[in-house]
Amino acid sequence: MKVNDRRKAIVNLLSASKDPVAGNELSKQFGVSRQIIVQDITVLKGLGYEIFSTHHGYVLQKSPLVERVFKLKHTTEQTEDVLNSIVDLGGTIIDEFVWHKVYGKISATLNIFSRLHVKQFLEGVRTGKSTELMNITGGYHYLTVRAESEEILDNIGLMLKTKNYIALGD
């Protein structure tokens, strides 16, 4: 994993965690030394992330990143293009959720921020390990996308609209 990808993954992990995440846990998860994690945290702090070190681990107080939820409708065959297009424009797909008429909101954490993650996700779906969440609601689903600026989210929204992936109605 490249340095920037690892740092992005650290931010995503800290953002998603309700509890402090120990440096040793990050070290094991990313296959690097504890010293590398300390360096990564220092760089992330320099980029504006409010990361605090506690005796239980690292906590992300407030992220400078922005998020937007996109309501989409597309086919299974188009999923790869949707995900790759979002990450290519600088977005991270945080989660996917659907509104089921009986069960209510059903969601899944994804944290997809690279083409490698898109490939791994699709392999999991295509090998029969699971099915795409959108399949239970006729293709309608929501993606929460995080990026470094509103401009990036605007570009992602424009791309999704241009490719006719934005859902226009129920």
Key descriptive features of the protein:
170 residues, 6 helices, globular
| Uncertain spans | none
Most strands sheet:
4 strands, antiparallel
| Cα Rg | 17 Å
Structural class: alpha+beta
| Outline type | globular
Give helix and strand order, one letter per element, not per position: HHHEEEHEEHEH
Number of helices: 6
**Side-by-side strand order of the widest sheet:** 3-6-4-5
Helix content: 40-55%
Mean pLDDT: 90
Short recap of the structure:
With 170 residues, the protein is of the alpha+beta class.
What does this protein look like?
The chain is of the alpha+beta class and 170 residues long. A four-stranded antiparallel beta sheet has the order 3-6-4-5, with helices on both faces. Strands 1-2 form a two-stranded antiparallel ribbon. It contains six helices and six strands.
Topology:
Layout: H1 3-16, H2 23-30, H3 34-46, E1 51-54, E2 57-60, E3 66-73, H4 79-88, E4 92-100, E5 104-112, H5 115-126, E6 140-147, H6 150-162
